[in-house]
Write a structure and sequence with these properties.
Layout (H helix, E strand, L loop, with lengths): L10 H20 L6 H11 L5 E2 H8 L3 H13 L3 E6 L2 E9 L3 H19 L5 H22 L17
Antiparallel strand pairs: 1-3, 2-3
Helix pairs in contact: 1-5, 2-5, 3-4
């Protein structure tokens, strides 16, 4: 069997293409809300932590460098979605909290994601989706130790979302 005949041969490329296209379409649907996928991921992760999160913990959770997250947080804060406060006991550290403005928007974000999933998966059976999730979960578990801390810190709980 040549590599082109091996069903796993194109899997990585197909995953990258699907991920890129999925994020592109979701970005277009979130744009009227003043959001992007990158901003949405930060908001959804923060929504699971009403006590707030440090910028470093949030960066690990969403899988990006702290310096990259700072720019996203600057934009989210300027638009009134989040607020940063000094961490008690450590003036250098900042905790990030959702604002009241973000809470109702999360329902609209969830609706946009749910509608896109329904549209994209409408002719896929539940068994197919579960099998795909199992396969991707196994591949992810093998990749995380190889990818380093930004891909998944084993001390942190699993990320809520990567892309809707």
């Amino acid at each position: 069997m040549t590599s082109a005949d091996d069903p796993s041969y194109r899997l990585g490329l197909a995953l990258a293409e699907v991920s890129r296209l999925w994020r592109h379409v979701l970005d277009a649907r979130l744009k009227p809300l003043g959001l992007s996928t990158a901003r949405w991921v930060a908001l959804v992760n923060l929504s699971a932590h009403p006590e707030g999160m440090t910028q470093n913990a949030l960066a690990l959770r969403v899988g990006i460098k702290g310096s990259t997250l700072v720019r996203q947080l600057d934009l989210l804060e300027a638009d009134g979605w989040v607020v940063r406060r000094a961490q008690p006991g450590d003036r250098r550290a900042k905790r990030v909290f959702l604002t009241a403005k973000a809470r109702p928007a999360l329902a609209r974000i969830a609706t946009a994601g749910r509608e896109l999933r329904r549209e994209l998966l409408r002719d896929c059976s539940e068994a197919e989706i579960r099998a795909c999730n199992r396969l991707l979960g196994r591949v992810k578990a093998r990749l995380e130790p190889l990818a380093g801390p930004l891909a998944g810190d084993e001390r942190a709980p699993p990320r809520l979302v990567a892309a809707e």
